[in-house]
Specification:
Structural class: mainly alpha
Radius of gyration: 23 Å
Number of strands: 0
Strand content: under 5%
Order of helices and strands: HHHHHHHHHH
Shape: globular
Oligomer: single chain
Length: 236
């Protein structure tokens, strides 16, 4: 095992994850007013509607697909009776569909930001950076799922990438799992960690701002006043 392998699959991921955690703490303590997605809906609405809808739903299903494939050990699927064919069928077709939806939504958001003058003028470098990095990570991952796996590739990330990533979370990573992985999977992982490193300094932090307070907030009741009542109020 070379020093480069040790850096790529142990040191570099921990550097990115450390920046991810400490960066969020720093951002929250120093820039709470900027802790939002900075909605541009008032600048343009029609393109945002479909782009945002497709991208967010696509990324949600992509996320849970990664949880199912990387965080859940393969032995669990064997125990509950999920065969290799069943799993890969779901990964290719359902994962591929989620990837297509996510890619289309991201493309709509990118072209919207690039073509609508008012949005382009109000865009910052970090807005472009986060959007481009998200797009690259999703496209590379989508290519791995559909291109490599669907074409008959025999690489099983559940017994290689999965144990390696779970090892990272338990502070016991084994870089040997990643050395023989196809270059597309390696690129997807490294780019994802770069995305984690820049995450706290972009609008992506709004992911953690869940409006949970709305679940217990009382309903707001609006009543329309008649013209006659308005006149009476005015006279008083």
């Amino acid at each position: 095992m070379s020093s480069l392998d040790l850096f790529l699959w142990v040191i570099f991921p921990y550097i990115c994850l450390t920046i991810f955690v400490l960066g969020h703490i720093y951002r929250y303590n120093t820039d709470q007013f900027g802790w939002s997605a900075k909605s541009s809906e008032f600048l343009e609405k029609k393109k945002l509607k479909w782009g945002s809808l497709l991208f967010h739903w696509g990324i949600v299903f992509v996320f849970f697909g990664h949880v199912a494939g990387v965080l859940i050990p393969k032995v669990f699927y064997d125990t509950v009776g999920v065969t290799e064919h069943m799993y890969h069928f779901g990964a290719v077709w359902f994962g591929g569909a989620a990837g297509v939806i996510c890619v289309i939504g991201g493309a709509l958001l990118f072209t919207r930001r690039a073509s609508v003058k008012r949005i382009k003028v109000n865009s910052q470098f970090k807005d472009w950076l986060s959007l481009v990095m998200l797009g690259i990570v999703v496209i590379v991952g989508f290519t791995n799922t559909v291109g490599y796996t669907a074409s008959g590739g025999d690489f099983d990330y559940r017994v290689t990438i999965g144990p390696w990533f779970r090892g990272l979370l338990t502070f016991n990573p084994d870089p040997a799992y990643m050395i023989g992985a196809p270059i597309g999977f390696q690129a997807h992982i490294l780019l994802a960690f770069v995305l984690f490193a820049i995450w706290p300094f972009t609008r992506l932090v709004h992911v953690w701002s869940l409006p949970l307070a709305y679940l217990k907030r009382r309903y707001l009741v609006y009543r329309k006043m008649s013209p006659a009542k308005n006149q009476n109020v005015t006279k008083r």
